[in-house]
Amino acid sequence: AQGRVARMLIAHADVDHGRPLAEAGKLDELARYLNDFIDATAAGGAEMAAIVAVTPHICTAQLLPLLRIPLIDMVAAVADEIRARGLRRVALFGTRSTVASRMFGRLPVDVVMPKPDEIDFINNAYLDVVYDRSTPAGIDRLRELARTLMARDGAEAVLLAGTDLSMVMNEDNAGFPTLDCAGVHIAAITRRLLD
Fold first, then answer.
1. Staple partner for 26: which of 21, 59, 75, 159, CB 3.0–4.6 Å?
2. pTM
3. Which runs of consecutive H residues, i.e. helices, occur in 64-115?
């Protein structure tokens, strides 16, 4: 809208390398892995970094001391949006690491903990989206589970805490109150680029 064009450098990390590190709790190793990509973009002239997936933010505490450039932190942006919306209790859809850790314990609200089999289902349904195996029936089951987490556990909204989920549902078509973490992060990145 302002007629400005962002200059972006993209370094693509391998989800099949990073996600197992997160799941195994190898956070120092994950931070070093991600920092190598951020360093490469900094060497190319990048002035700030953004990790545009949720799960890698599990190692933010380990990553920040390594960085040469500032990080636009997705979880911090989501926390700000939760406060702005006045939410008090939320549920999460994303990887097992994200859901089981309640988004790394960094959200300023009570986070509903699904039952173990529900966490497995959420994780697997999300990975089906990531690897382009999702079906309309699987997405409908996610919607049903969202309604269950709201009715049974008192969640006021479900955070789409897996960036690929925004390809199959969003705040307009989800069928339940939701907050799209990828969308919130994109807005935060855009604000920083316009500063």
1. 21
2. 0.93
3. 74-85, 96-100
